[in-house]
Amino acid sequence: xxxxxxxxxxxxxxxxxxxxxxxxxxxxxxxxxxxxxxxxxxxxxxxxxxxxxxxxxxxxxxxxxxxxxxxxxxxxxxxxxxxxxxxxxxxxxxxxxxxxxxxxxxxxxxxxxxxxxxxxxxxxxxxxxxxxxxxxxxxxxxxxxxxxxxxxxxxxxxxxxxxxxxxxxxxxxxxxxxxxxxxxxxxxxxxxxxxxxxxxxxxxxxxxxxxxxxxxxxxxxxxxxxxxxxxxxxxxxxxxx
Length: 241
Known about the structure:
CATH class: Alpha Beta
Order of helices and strands: EHEEHEHEEEHEHEHHEEH
Strand content: 15-25%
Strand order of the largest sheet: 3-4-2-5-8-1-9-10-11
CATH architecture: 3-Layer(aba) Sandwich
Shape: globular
Largest sheet: 9 strands, mixed
Number of domains: 1
Helix content: 25-40%
Number of strands: 11
Radius of gyration: 17 Å
Low-confidence stretches: 218-225, 227-234
């Protein structure tokens, strides 16, 4: 399952990503290049492996992968290091959600990090091993074509950028969405479903109740457990290690 959340600063895309991740899995991981997420912070593949072995995600907080380097290539290396643990050969791990924050740093319209391409195209999609990958970025136009072909759901906040408008039409084939996303209030968004819907069921819907999912996610703000109501999440699969 692949989702992307697109929006400007402080629209709520990172919190939305957490909400979406917890709707499908108890075990949630975050690739966090900006240091924006609270949770169990790890800084290396060894620390990540140890955190998984100890199942520390079972307390309801995500495992947050960070790195500290001024090297412009560090984000690519760090992401690949994380993927070496979460997506080993034959994809023997599963049953978790992964948020890739600032996903635009790992791809462009004509290029994509190989580890990201492999993850979104080949991760398990069925049974207890299924994986949910949620990418966030500021711009829809940043996403590579491989992402488009593997998408299940697009969540987009207000944008007035012409390139993003063109990308929206290219992704969805729905020109009428351009006017809608141009005028969305803060924290409101359009959810577009790529699966074919039944006759009479629209391909997209408006999320106009931010109270359903929006809270601050900074370390000093509310606990991430506030995102996980029993009403929404119910019984979720256990991670396959």
